[in-house]
């Protein structure tokens, strides 16, 4: 049966047309801690790939432990791109990311390899494959993540004042004592402002979008284990070094999950156990928003990983076969 008008299908570009000259783009997507990087590294033993990292935090220099950035050994084994692009206090937009990501697709294909996008920042992936068009994106998990962190660190009154400055009419209609309503109104206001940014056209080549699916309890378990491991691996030391280097705790990078909690622990306002628990909770919330973003895309073919490691041979082979079939 032919797809309904306007419906996107696996392997087809969002423009509804395919340019044979455009190299295919493959991707491994999913929420944080689902095993995307582990699966990508295993795929690299079976397919010639280079990895394009689609992660709005791993692009910052100095944010390595708290973002679970690929290790030096992994980066030596498989070329990784789009890491360490900006300082933690440097503005960096999706347009900046796209400007660097798009040329890499052709460069990697020119080397006879497959460009494999790996990450959980759905806004970046959408910008690459669907075109840079915020008007078609009603919200972004990145905006929600940042605003949720700000209401915890700066307080509701500060965000209510910002809403009044950005969109006075929306502020008049909003119960400014209700955190959820203030966050939603501010989110809409900020998203609307971003629609004025330049746009790019949808990618015309073939797409192979693979998602890693796990039961919610298993994903929560993995998030808890990862959170504990980040603190054990030296997250506090990493944050101390960032603050000592002069980066403000008010920067967007240091307000994100894990880093904000580390800052508060170092300032003496959170115990270590409280910092770990808060990080795990906020990470679970972020993972939920990531899944909401990805689940609405019918082109993504989901691989059920259950409680198995992402490097499980059956999972790797299933993903490999899907990638090969979809980009053929």
Could you explain how this protein is built, in words?
The chain has 328 residues and is of the alpha/beta class. α6 (156-166) packs parallel to α8 and α10 crosses α11 (259-266). The radius of gyration is 20 Å and the shape is globular. It folds into 2 domains: 25-132 and 197-327, Rossmann fold, CATH 3.40.50; 141-194, Histone, subunit A, CATH 1.10.20. It starts with 24 loop residues before the first strand and ends with a helix. The protein has 13 helices and 6 strands. The protein has helices spanning 36-43, 72-77, 94-110, 122-130, 141-154, 156-166, 168-173, 179-194, 216-232, 235-244, 259-266, 272-295, 313-327, and strands spanning 25-29, 49-54, 80-81, 114-119, 207-213, 301-304. The protein has a 6-stranded parallel β-sheet, with helices on both faces. The model is unreliable at 1-9, 134-138 and 194-198 (pLDDT under 50).
């Amino acid at each position: 049966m032919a797809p309904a008008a306007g419906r996107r299908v696996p392997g087809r570009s969002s423009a509804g047309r395919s340019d044979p000259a455009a190299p295919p783009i493959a991707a491994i997507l999913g929420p944080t801690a689902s095993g995307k990087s582990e699966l990508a590294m295993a795929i690299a033993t079976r397919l010639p790939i280079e990895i394009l990292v689609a992660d709005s935090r791993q692009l910052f220099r100095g944010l390595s432990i708290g973002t679970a950035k690929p290790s030096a050994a992994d980066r030596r084994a498989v070329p990784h791109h789009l890491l360490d692009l900006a300082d933690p206090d440097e503005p960096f937009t999706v347009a900046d990311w796209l400007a660097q990501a798009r040329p890499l697709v052709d460069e990697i294909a020119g080397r006879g390899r497959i460009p494999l996008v790996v990450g959980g920042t759905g806004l970046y992936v959408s910008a690459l494959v669907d075109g840079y068009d915020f008007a078609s994106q009603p919200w972004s998990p990145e905006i929600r993540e940042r605003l949720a962190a700000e209401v915890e660190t700066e307080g509701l009154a500060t965000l209510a004042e910002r809403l009044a400055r950005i969109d006075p009419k929306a502020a008049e209609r909003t119960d400014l004592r209700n955190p959820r309503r203030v966050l939603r109104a501010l989110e809409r206001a900020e998203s609307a402002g971003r629609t004025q940014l330049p746009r790019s056209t949808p990618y015309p080549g073939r797409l192979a979008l693979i998602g890693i699916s796990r039961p919610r309890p298993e994903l929560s378990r993995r998030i808890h284990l990862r959170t504990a491991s980040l603190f054990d691996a030296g997250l506090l030391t990493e944050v101390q070094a960032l603050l000592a280097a002069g980066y403000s705790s008010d920067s967007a990078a240091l307000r994100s999950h894990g880093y904000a909690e580390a800052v508060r622990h170092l300032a003496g306002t959170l115990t270590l156990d409280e910092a770990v628990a808060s990080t795990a909770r906020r990470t679970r919330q972020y993972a939920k928003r990531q899944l909401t973003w990805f689940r609405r895309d019918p082109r993504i073919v989901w691989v059920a990983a259950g409680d198995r490691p992402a490097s499980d041979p059956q999972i790797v082979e299933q993903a490999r076969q899907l990638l090969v079939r979809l980009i053929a």
